[in-house]
Amino acid sequence: MGRDKAKVKGKGKASDSNELTEMGVDMKGIKDRIDKILQIASERELWKQKESDMRVLAVDTSNMTGDELQVILAMKEEVKKHYSNPSLTTFAASHTGDPSPISAPDIRSPAPAPATDFSFYGLSGVCQIQCKPICNTSSKHLSTLIVLGSGGHTAEMINLLSVMQNDRFAPRFYIAAVTDNMSLQKARVFENTLADKISLQVSDSTKFMQIYRSREVGQSYITSIGTTLFALCHALWLMLKIRPQVILCNGPGTCIPLCAIAFIFKVLGIRWSYIFYVESIARVKRLSLSGLLLYKLHMADQLFVQWPQLQKQYPRAHYVGRLM
């Protein structure tokens, strides 16, 4: 009985195809077009992956140590293995307008890719958000609030800052928790290195500040209510003092009170600060708690993730390759 049903079903499909052919529908042409569309989509993905891989190879590891260095070296090794596969060395351009077939990069002596410029991702164009500008587009400088944090957040942030247009994102205000003894020191070293490159002293407009934590590690949730309110008051005072045009953060819980105050200011029309959140590269399967709060409450104007599967899970996030 089952075989008879299968035969009937097969005959039905064949008859449908024959009917379409008799009506003048070019079934072979349609199939060829679908195959071509799928091929073009595949090539587009290869282009995107190649751009991302070039940024990985261009990362400067001379100033990295410890786990951070091991992670970057492992990523570079993964890229090299990927391009050592002969089947990936070239692929044909299948439609008008595509460039010539691309050869794999020379892994032995990779040409330095252009430094990742955040203007490509929107940081330099922070003059438009939906329907309201945050600043005058003719303004040369954008006061930038940079939130630092322990546990690797500061190292990732400094890597990000090292490839940004630092002359445009100035003055810079670095903020870390009062119990964080290392982050501001690393920021000072970065600013001194930056100043040495252009033979200048660290600008007086660059400030290093501290903020109270909403909750310490291991602190009970009951007592954290009071500390959270105190942190919000402190964040309010800092935001009124700094008045940043751009807020840049990448995961530490310290950023939540500052972003919350900035969001309230935007809602009330008091001050328009553009919030950029770049999720840590360590977050592969899900957003951190800070990222999840900013995403769910729509606080962040732009939220970037560094793994494509995260962008699929959180559609409003942006994936433009690895940024750190």
Automatic annotation (TrEMBL):
InterPro entries: Oligosacch_biosynth_Alg14 (IPR013969)
Subcellular location: Endoplasmic reticulum membrane
Record flagged with keyword Membrane: yes
Main location: endoplasmic reticulum
Molecular function via GO: N-acetylglucosaminyldiphosphodolichol N-acetylglucosaminyltransferase activity
GO cellular component terms, A-Z: UDP-N-acetylglucosamine transferase complex
Stretches the record annotates as Disordered: 1-20
Keywords, ordered alphabetically: Endoplasmic reticulum, Membrane, Transmembrane, Transmembrane helix
Gene3D superfamilies referenced in this protein's UniProt entry, alphabetically: Glycogen Phosphorylase B (3.40.50.2000)
Keyword Transmembrane helix included in the entry's annotation: yes
TM region(s), chain numbering: 221-240, 260-278
Topology in the lipid bilayer: Single-pass membrane protein
Swiss-Prot/TrEMBL GO biological process terms: dolichol-linked oligosaccharide biosynthetic process
Family as reported in the entry's similarity comment: Belongs to the ALG14 family.
Descriptive protein name: UDP-N-acetylglucosamine transferase subunit ALG14
Source species: Lactuca virosa
